């Protein structure tokens, strides 16, 4: 992130901070890179929020 963005990572529940790296899935949900990478390795390759592949 370059500017402070409201909200938080749905996986770790931490607020977004300037400098955080995000991954945006095809469904447009945003996560910290490390959080979603861990999630996708441990679960089916789907969004933890909407369950889209």
UniProtKB/TrEMBL annotation:
GO molecular function terms attached to this record: zinc ion binding
Cell compartment(s), UniProt: Membrane
Highest taxon in the source lineage: Eukaryota
PROSITE patterns reported for this sequence: ZF_RING_2
Swiss-Prot/TrEMBL keywords: Membrane, Metal-binding, Transmembrane, Transmembrane helix, Zinc, Zinc-finger
InterPro entries in the record: E3_ligase_sorting_rcpt (IPR051653), Znf_RING (IPR001841), Znf_RING/FYVE/PHD (IPR013083)
Membrane topology: Single-pass membrane protein
Chief place of localization: membrane
Occurrences of domain RING-type (ranges): 9-51
GO cellular component: membrane
Name the record gives this protein: RING-type domain-containing protein
């Amino acid at each position: 992130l370059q500017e402070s963005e409201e909200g938080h990572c749905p996986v770790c529940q931490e607020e977004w901070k300037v400098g955080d790296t995000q991954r945006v899935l095809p469904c447009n949900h945003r996560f910290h890179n490390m959080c979603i990478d861990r999630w996708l390795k441990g679960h089916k390759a789907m969004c933890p929020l909407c369950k889209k592949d």
